Each structure stands twice: as C-alpha cells, then as structure tokens.
Automatic annotation (TrEMBL):
Protein name in the entry: Methyltransferase type 11 domain-containing protein
InterPro entries associated with the record: Methyltransf_11 (IPR013216), SAM-dependent_MTases_sf (IPR029063), Thiol_S-MT (IPR052356)
GO molecular function: S-adenosylmethionine-dependent methyltransferase activity
Pfam families per record: Methyltransf_11 (PF08241)
Organism lineage string: Eukaryota, Sar, Stramenopiles, Ochrophyta, Dictyochophyceae
Length: 137
C-alpha cells in the first residue's frame, strides 16, 4: 500500500512465491498486475486457488518459472518487487538484490520480510538506499 500512494495500477514481481500461499496475505492491492516467480512450478491446485483468489480480490496474477540470480525481465520493468523469507536461502543475496534493483523502475520500491539481520544490512547498505526499501512485518 505504501508504494501505491497516488499511483494507478502497479506492476509487481513476487520473487520466491513457492506454493503461492502468500497470495492470501492480501499483499497486493486492487488493480495491480502481479507476476509470481519461483524456480519450481507450484502444484496445480495451489496455483489455481491463488489465481482464483487474486481474481476475486481485483488483481491479475500469473506464475512464471525463473531464477532470481538472473531475472529474465528488462531493466526498469516493475514498480514493486516483493519477497518473504527468500533471501536467506543458499545463494548469494547480493546478486539477487542487484537483479531486483535492476528490474525496478526508477523510484520503484522493494518490500521484503527476512529473519536474517545480515541480509537486511546487505540490502540496505550495499545495494539500496534506505528510502527504497519497505520492511514487511
């Protein structure tokens, strides 16, 4: 909601969507286009339930398989990128966060929830400025 202030629909990239259960947290406001991305495809039932929920709550949701260390999207594609409990996985978070920054539009926002304090420091200190990051609690 913070990233939405005064704007129309946003393009949102949800990295590390996993089984798509996070869609039910209503992170994505009405009217936005959300691309859920993960290395593996979710179960058909989970994907169907998430897509139905999104439609009922007024936003578009589609799933795409992809690697967060090498995002297939052009630079400046998304208004918002979100992830939750993803950057602590066994890969280089600096590479992932650099890719996130690349695909964000100028002035775009990165929202994340993470339980590893060092990840927060990597994101804020090395890649993003403080004003570009939204900590989801």
């Amino acid at each position: 909601a913070e990233a939405q202030k005064g704007k129309g629909p946003l393009r949102v990239l949800w990295i590390g969507s996993g089984d798509m259960k996070g869609v039910f947290q209503n992170l994505f406001p009405f009217g936005n286009e959300v691309i859920a991305m993960d290395l593996r495809r979710p179960e058909a039932g989970d994907l169907s339930a998430a897509t139905t929920y999104a439609t009922e709550h007024g936003y578009q949701l589609r799933f795409e398989q992809g690697d967060a260390t090498d995002l297939k999207y052009s630079s400046g594609t998304f208004d918002v990128v979100v992830c939750s409990m993803f950057l602590c996985q066994d890969f280089n978070p600096e590479v992932v966060v650099s890719e996130i920054r690349r695909v964000l539009k100028p002035g775009g926002r990165f929202g994340f929830y993470e339980h590893v304090e060092d990840i927060d420091k990597v994101i804020v200190d090395k890649v993003f400025g403080e004003r570009s990051v939204i900590r989801i609690q």
